[in-house]
Amino acid sequence: MIKVLIADNHPVVRLGIKQVLESSSDIEIIADVSTTSELFETLGKMTPDVVILEMDIPEINGIATLRKMKLEFPNIKTLMYSGQSEDVYALSTIRAGAYGYLSKTADLDYIISAVRKVSDGNMFITNELAQRLAFDEGTQKPRRFFRKLSSREVEVLKLLASGKRNKEVAEGLNLNEKTVSTYKARLMKKLNVDNLVDLLQQAKALELY
């Protein structure tokens, strides 16, 4: 039996995932939580095989939560589940330690196969995403840049794009301001821009707004 914990701040989403997964005889939902503090409190009491983690779960963002889980609970496998741009975030979350990434726009049938694959220690991304990562369409040219970015750089860029100042970015990611400035300079170089306005335009092209 595959034991699953669902971490998502939307009750309807948690209920929907539960209903889909519980239709499978080899999957058991052992808990569901709505915040990162609830997640870590629950993980201190029980050990799921797979955590389905929402990218924008409250309190700590999904990638930071994923990193913390990898440190504190290295044997638990994580499947990221998100409404965020799959093209941009899938590789970033996998680089940060996720075993798979599933978009909330994907067919429901994918959830069961994703959980099974991840529980076996295999990577999961949809066939559609695999094809898009293999072949860049001309219309998606700006998205090529995301492959150059580390998961931490994506986090910094997203916070900057949301209007956060360096100090707020530093506090949100537990970094110092000088490090954030270094990340900002690195982002400008990688995204081939020389000012903040153009950097935020790239963030928009990457669907980070």
Automatic annotation (TrEMBL):
Domain Response regulatory: 3-119
GO molecular function, one term: DNA binding
InterPro entries, per the entry: CheY-like_superfamily, NreC/VraR/RcsB-like_REC, Sig_transdc_resp-reg_C-effctor, Sig_transdc_resp-reg_receiver, Tscrpt_reg_LuxR_C, WalR-like
Protein name: Two component transcriptional regulator, LuxR family
GO biological process: phosphorelay signal transduction system; regulation of DNA-templated transcription
HTH luxR-type domain mapped to chain residues: 142-207
Domain of life of the organism encoding this protein: Bacteria
Keyword terms, alphabetized: DNA-binding, Phosphoprotein
Keyword hit for Plastid: no
UniProt-listed Pfam families: GerE (PF00196), Response_reg (PF00072)
RNA-binding among keywords: no
Cross-referenced SMART domains: HTH_LUXR, REC
